[in-house]
Design brief:
Helix content is 42%, strand content 15%. A 7-stranded mixed sheet has the order 2-8-7-6-5-3-4, sandwiched between helices. It has a 4-stranded antiparallel sheet with strand order 9-10-13-12. By secondary structure, the chain is of the alpha/beta class. The mean pLDDT is 96. The chain has 2 domains: 11-40 and 277-365, Aspartate Aminotransferase, domain 1 (Alpha-Beta Complex); 50-273, Type I PLP-dependent aspartate aminotransferase-like (Major domain) (Aspartate Aminotransferase, domain 2, 3-Layer(aba) Sandwich), CATH 3.40.640. Strand 5 (160-164), helix 8 and strand 6 form a beta-alpha-beta unit. The structure holds pyridoxal-5'-phosphate.
């Protein structure tokens, strides 16, 4: 038996396993803490709206029927919400599915993909798998997006420009004028993909939503959204893309698996859209608590990146992994960042007030 598995493509051997964060069960087993606060995956601490729960209950008896592969009902709702044609909406099994579909549709071996760094690892991984190269634009010394460097790299005409805005893990975001400059700078031979997983938390707060920045643009673009964060459906796996043209949607459609989004997720997403008031409550809590936690961290002497997401990225001043392990022993799950230059940083999601207090209290114990 060949133990070095030469059957596996070298591009795949280059990948590191996704750092998906610990489950509650795993922390229970390892530390058996008094209580657990799960602040490692940017989930919505209030869960889905009651309307979602009843939609799922009614759906259950239809589980034997294949879902609508076109997701017509949900796509129609999303097209209305965003003021685009139904043919400009594509659904994904989470937006991570669409990241993979986009890379498989667009990237050739040797192509270049420009992204912001520290980055959402999947943007890089799906690029690497295609044999394309990742070109990173790091934060500047003030921990803000280096817009000039980003514009310069975009000007060189990479096949793909793909980043999260607000950024994950940093939480930094492109100011409205900068986003307009970026959108205008992308040349016709490049595709711009803006992953807006956290847009709901940023809306109306010195933030320009990407679909608004893209209107009237000649070159192609895709804006990704997800139901996993503010809408509270992470366990169901559903996200979507708003695509510049129906022609491009049609090619992405050929690459995705036909039944990539399941029926329960489609039904739940429609019910979630019916209950916008719930999302407003979720966002309000996240914004208020984010600023409270940020002040507390800064008062304790930590450097914190200003954030428009439901999370904060801060410099622990020491090993982020060690701090995270000490927090785990106290029952607090956070995400230590593992990418080069950011190993001292930890990303903490904003939970309920009680969960955030649990985190701040556990963190203060690591210093005494
Ligand atoms: C959480 C997140 C997603 C969402 O992924 P899903 O597959 O929709 O759950 C996508 N992009 C970024 C940057 C994220 O942080």
């Amino acid at each position: 038996m060949a133990s070095d598995l030469n059957i596996v493509r070298p591009e795949v051997k280059q990948l590191t396993p996704y750092n998906s964060g610990l489950t509650i069960a795993e922390v229970q087993r390892r530390y058996n803490p008094r209580k657990i606060s799960k602040l490692g995956s940017n989930e919505n601490p209030l869960g889905p709206s009651p309307a979602v729960v009843s939609a799922l209950t009614s759906y259950a008896a239809n589980s034997h029927i294949y879902p609508d592969p076109a997701g017509q009902a949900l796509r129609t709702r999303l097209a209305e919400k965003h003021g685009v044609a139904v043919e400009q909406i594509i659904l994904g099994n989470g937006s991570e599915d669409l990241l993979s579909v986009i890379c498989r549709t667009i990237l050739r071996p040797g192509d270049r993909m420009v992204t912001l760094y520290p980055s959402f690892p999947l943007h890089e991984d799906y690029t690497t798998v295609m044999g394309a190269e990742v070109d990173r634009v790091g934060l500047d010394a003030a921990l803000e997006i280096d817009v000039d460097l980003l514009l310069a790299k975009i000007g060189t005409g990479p096949r793909l420009v793909m980043f999260a805005n607000p950024m994950n893990p940093a939480g930094a975001w492109l100011k409205p004028d900068d986003l307009r400059r970026v959108a205008a700078a992308v040349p016709a031979q490049s595709l711009l993909v803006i992953d807006e997983a956290y847009a709901e938390y940023a809306e109306g707060d010195g933030y320009l939503e990407a679909p608004d920045a893209m209107r009237g643009k000649d070159s192609d673009w895709i804006v990704l959204r997800t139901f996993s964060k503010a809408w509270g459906l992470a366990g169901l796996r559903i996200g979507y893309g708003i695509v510049s043209t129906s022609l491009l949607t049609g090619y992405l459609d050929r690459v995705r698996t036909p039944f990539n989004t399941n029926g329960a997720a489609q039904a739940a997403a429609i019910a979630a859209l019916d209950g916008e008031a719930h999302v407003r409550t979720v966002v309000e809590l996240a914004r208020t608590e984010r600023e409270r936690v940020r002040s507390a961290l800064e008062e304790a002497g930590y450097r914190v990146v200003p954030s428009r997401g439901n999370f904060l990225f801060f410099d622990t001043g020491t090993s982020g992994t060690d701090i995270s392990e000490a927090l785990l022993a106290e029952g607090v799950i956070v995400k230590p960042w593992k990418q080069p230059d950011y190993e001292r940083f930890v990303r903490v999601s904003i939970g309920t007030a009680a969960e955030n207090d649990h985190f701040l209290d556990a963190l203060s114990k690591t210093r005494s």
